[in-house]
Prior knowledge:
This protein is mainly alpha-helical. It has 7 helices and no strands. Helix 1 crosses helix 2 (35-42) and helix 1 (11-28) crosses helix 4. The longest helix has 21 residues, at 56-76. The protein is elongated and about 55 Å long. The termini are far apart.
Amino acid sequence: MKSRHRTENTKSENARFWMPARSILIRRGYQDVRLDDISRSAGISKGALYLYFRDKEDLFAAVLGDLVERLEARLQGIPPQGSALDMLRKTAQEELAFVDENKDFIVHFSLEKPSLCEPGPGRSSGEGSPNTCFFSRNASRPA
Length: 143
């Protein structure tokens, strides 16, 4: 069956779902969340949610993607001033502050959905594979 998933979602379209999804995932945990809960919280039908995301894992990956993009933007905003050690300190401070601000979601990700980083049916664990861990893929990109 061909997926009805929209491949050209705009950030503003997806953003409608990220905060309700994130909030529900934090409160209830990945295993106990249903797309019905998220669609109801976002004020749309479950069918409309499926136009944007294939399944719960796809939505969860989008929420993670938003988190990574926000961290990247924050790190890119650090002015390139001072010595290499100064830059390393500033980068570490920003990363730690970001993790602290988002620890609720990061804890749920690391405890409940580590399978996003593990090979599974139809997934390859090879370097550079489109199905390797979302964080690993993004961490290895040049700035």
